[in-house]
Amino acid sequence: MDALSWGSILIRIATQLTPVWIGLVVIFALSITYKRKLGLYGKLFDSTIGMIGFALVMFWVLVGVMGGPFDMLVTHDPLSQISGMKNKLPGTPMRSAAEGEYAYFLLGGDNLARDVFSRLIKGAWVVVQIAPIATLFAFMVGITLGLPAGYYGGRLDTLLSFLANLILAFPVILLFYLLVTPEIVLTGIPNYMALFLFVFPLVFMAILLNSRLYTRPTVRTPVLVVVLGIMGWLYLSLVSTDGYVVATPSYGIPGLPNALDLFNIDPGILVVFVSVVFVNSPTVYRIVRGLAMDIKTRDYVAAAQTRGEGPWYIMLWEILPNARGPLIVDFCLRIGYTTILLGTLGFFGLGLESESPDWGSTINAGRRLLALYPHAAIAPAMALLTLVLGLNLLADGLREESLRD
Amino acid sequence: MGLFILRRLGVMLLTALCLTFIVFWLTNLYPNLEKLAKTQGNFRMSDEAVTSYLENRGYLQPMPVKFGQWLGVVPGWITEKKDGTTMGRCFTADTPITERKRFCGVLQGDWGQSTVFKDDVSNIVSTRLGLTGKLMFMVMIVMVPMALLLGVLAGMREGSKTDRSLSTLSIASTATPEYVSGVIFIAVFTSSAFGLKWFKGSATSAMESITFENFTLPVLTISLYGMGYIARMTRASMTEVMTAQYIRTARLKGVSFPNIVLKHALRNALIAPFTVIMLQFPWLLNGVVIVETLFNYKGFGWLLVQAASNNDIELLLSVSVVSVVVVLVTQLISDIGYVYLNPRIRIS
After folding, report:
1. Of B35, B184, B304, the CB nearest to A381
2. Does residue A341 contact residue B177 with C-beta atoms inside 8 Å?
3. Is A273 helix (H, G, I), strand (E, B) or coil?
């Protein structure tokens, strides 16, 4: 068999991604039909830039979800090495393709003779999984600390702002090099940080519901018990591995027993996750604090104060909803930034295993042979570029549309 | 103003102290020390050998004592070995007893020894900083004018075609981290696959002599990521200025459009980007680490990677002190400069 030409490579990739195209068309058709009823999300479809951004983001989300847990789209196993395919150019046919096996390496092979195309798709799942959740956690931390700092001001504000500036003054890469090493994982510090940082969504939900419902204890108590019960279970499953919350060679703090543990997080992933949340939350804190300081001077806040509402009610039900515009925009931008950070970690070979298909690690592996075989590094580089570009364009579109009214 | 600067300097000092203590604490955790002992001694050391190695070199003292010794406020450690020889933090075996100092730390101007490079930390750091200084200088020369031009052109007429395309361009540039643009640049301009061998993919030779061929790509790679952000800030501030009353007055008086932009708008529009440019320094530091690794330019960023991956404690501490000071000083300058440039803001 001959190697494929660039045209037929593109056609084959496009056919391979058919489910993604179908998904994109369905999402766009539905959204454009009902765009007047969908609020800010619907307005996004009035701006070209926003639509392009949304399409790029949804493309990678669909690729990640379909390629990851559902195992569609991929042509080969992303980890298996196939003899004779080392550093082969895009479109190279396999030497002896078995029956039912895909006969080509669409984007070539890397220096360990693995299929670049399949690794690209599996790598999308790593990003799609970690980046939004880590950003969400960073927002929970930033909002829970930033609202009181901006609303109360004073000592609390000084202390929290000092701590935030402390973290922000650290060069990110130095922090990663200090935190994301196997030695630090051994000391259990990431577990302590996970214990601390992941508790914020619980605190946030508890205050949010309590401040709204505390006048009706008959409703509040069952709601709080159910919500906090579920979230507490998830929290404990998240932080405990093999029955321990913190497990170092010398001591361990017991956590949720294995029978109740819903999922186990790989310690390598956990430390990456924790450090990304840790790096992002001070910036979110500063944004929320600034917004809170601005909004607390408005009349509706004064009205709520006169009504005798509690401070947390005002913060979470008066200030926060009115700060949502800038926060949503920043959320999109921050997912992009988190993606870049994840790539940086991979690029320096920190945290994730070296055979992990995530884009940063693949770029790191491919850059050594860049002068001779650039395809192995360029494919993930372009993928990362388009995803982050999509998120930034989406944020720009959202900003434009939310400023319009 | 004097009090403001004094207070800022105090906070700065406190921040730097806290940060160095965090770095000190993280690098002095036992698993890290064990790794250090094994890389310095040999990899098959028994646990007892590791302990005695660390014990002899003063690594197992309490954390505040060690930090005090590094700072130079606590006398350096002295160990008497079983065979009668003594080892100390402040002297080597062949220093005469009368010349041995009690204190040696940062306050005495002694930044310690690097365990990897076997040299004085202050020597290594100053050489590497010089190399990175060259890189940063070139980046500033390329990045700032390009970003300002882009921003002013885009913000001049809000909503025009130029504005839209230049804004999209700057969004694209902020979406391209250094390791992506660097990889693409190297692949396109240096690899045999594209056949365009215009530049060199490695900047190692630029450490001795900078040429257009070996320095363009690293400089371009760093500038590209920071450029978009400054351009967007400039654009935002430019559009704001262009809607101001005095611009309208100038227009109604019949001043030509280029004159309005250059003589009336530009000066006021450049206040905000000034702060942003200063605050870009810490960000550039990240870019420098990535680019120096990618292009194999042995500067400060490369040193950071070497120090961190080998757990070279004293080198890493100096590297973090330098980078933290850079970050804090630029923040201070940007605050002071902002007050000077913008008379509407007064600090009480």
Report:
1. B184
2. no
3. helix
Cα–chain-centroid distance for residue A339? 7
**Residue A188 φ/ψ region, left for φ over 0, alpha for ψ in the -120 to 50 degree band, beta for the rest:** left
Give the minimum alpha-carbon distance from B126 to chain A in angstroms, rounded to a whole number: 19
Chain B touched by A317 (CB under 8 Å):
no
A-chain CB neighbours of B294 within 8 Å are: 367
- Residue B100's φ and ψ, nearest 5 degrees, are -75, 130
Inter-chain contacts counted by CB atoms under 8 A, chains A and B: 139
Secondary structure (3-state) at A247: strand
Cβ of A184 under 8 Å from any chain B Cβ? yes
Candidate from A344, A370, A388 with C-beta closest to B187 = A370
Residue pLDDT tens, chain B, 348 long = 788 888 888 888 898 889 889 988 988 888 888 888 888 777 777 888 888 888 888 888 888 888 888 888 888 787 777 776 777 777 776 677 777 777 788 888 788 888 888 888 888 999 999 999 889 899 989 998 999 999 989 988 888 888 889 988 999 999 999 999 999 998 888 877 777 778 887 877 777 778 888 888 999 999 998 888 889 888 988 888 888 898 999 989 998 988 888 888 888 888 778 777 777 777 788 888 999 999 989 999 999 999 888 888 889 888 888 888 888 888 888 878 777 776 665 554
Could you tell me if B132 and B237 are in contact, meaning their C-beta atoms sit under 8 angstroms apart? no
Measure CB to CB from residue B171 to each of A189, A340, A396 and give the nearest one. Answer: A396
What residues in A contact B167, CB-CB < 8 Å? 396
Would you kindly state where each structural domain of chain B is located, as residue ranges? 2-108, 122-347
Choosing among 3.40.50.300, 1.10.3720.10, 3.65.10.10, 3.40.50.720, the CATH entry for B122-347 is 1.10.3720.10
Nearest to B187 among A340, A360, A377 (CB): A377
Query: Which residue in the block uniquely carries the two structure tokens 């990899």?
Result: B43
Chain-chain contact of A367 with B186 (C-beta, under 8 angstroms) = yes
